[in-house]
From TrEMBL:
This is SDR family NAD(P)-dependent oxidoreductase. The lineage of its organism: Bacteria, Pseudomonadati, Pseudomonadota, Betaproteobacteria, Burkholderiales. InterPro entries: NAD(P)-bd_dom_sf, NAD(P)-dependent_oxidoreduct, RCK_N. SUPFAM superfamilies: NAD(P)-binding Rossmann-fold domains (SSF51735). It comes from Telluria aromaticivorans. GO terms for molecular function: aldehyde dehydrogenase (NAD+) activity.
Amino acid sequence: MTRPAVFRQPRLLIVGCGNVGMRVLPLVRGRCRVLALTSQPERCAELRAAGAIPIVADLDRPETLHRLRGLADWVLHLAPPQPDGAEDRRTRHLVAAIGKVGRLAYVSTTGVYGDCGGELVHESRPVAPKNARARRRVDAERVLRAWALVNGTHLSILRAPGIYAADRLPLKRLELGTPALRPADDVYTSHIHADDLARIAVLALFRARGGRVVHAVDDTRMKMADYFDAVADAFGMARPPRLARAELQQVVTPTLLSYMSESRRLDNTRLKRELRMRLRYPDVAAALRSFSGTIANQKGN
C-alpha cells in the first residue's frame, strides 16, 4: 500500500526559530514536516499557527534535549552561540543530542574572516576571527564539520553578514545621532535581507553541495556610513555625523566599535551558481525602494 505523501516528507527541525526562522516556515510548509525548537513555552501557540510542531527545550540546558534524538531527518541550525566563552556550547549540546541526521544547514557569520582591509573575499579564504563572537562561530563550524564527517551528514554552512528588513533597520541609532566613521576611516560592510536569507537557508537544504561554505550575501558593496545615510534619506531622518576613528572610539561602545573595525567585501558567485539563488532584494537600495509603503506608514505615525 502506498504511504500518504505527508509520511514521505522529511522531518525538518528548525533550531533557533526567531525572525529568520519564522520567515522560513511558509517556505517549507507542504515540503517538510516541520518541528521548531523553542526555549519559551509561551511561543508554542505562535509556532503552531505558523505550521510547526513546537518542541520545548533549551540549548543551554542539555538535559532538556533528550527528545531530539532521532526526531528529525534534516536540521536548520539558526541559533547563535551563547554570549560568553571561547566555544559554542549550544552547538556542542545540539549535535550531542540529535544523533544522526541526513542534512544540516548552519547559518554562521561573515565575521569569521575578521578584518580583510576591504578586500574581496571568497569562501576559500582562511578564517581569522578577531573577537569572541566570531571565534565562537568558528568553533561551531569546526564542531559541525567533525560531527558531520563521523555521522555521514550532508552539511552546508551559510556565512551571513548584517541581516536587515523593513522592521530591522538602524532607526534607533539614527534617532540617537550615533556617529559614523568619516570616509577615510570607514569600512566596507555586506548585507542580506531577512526574506532572502530565509530562502537561501531553504535552498541550502535542498541544493547545497555537502561540506560547502556559501556566502549568504547580496550584491551590496558599500561602506557602513553610506548604509546609514541611505536609510536616513529613505526615512527623512538626519544623516549621522562623521568622525575620525580616534574620535569615534571615545564615544561608542567597544562592541559597536568592533563592528566598525572590520572591512571586507563578500563574493556571492557560489550562492548564485550552486544554490541558483535569485535575490529578491539584490542590494540595499532596491530594498529601501520596496519599503516605500512601510516608510510612509512610519512617517504617518
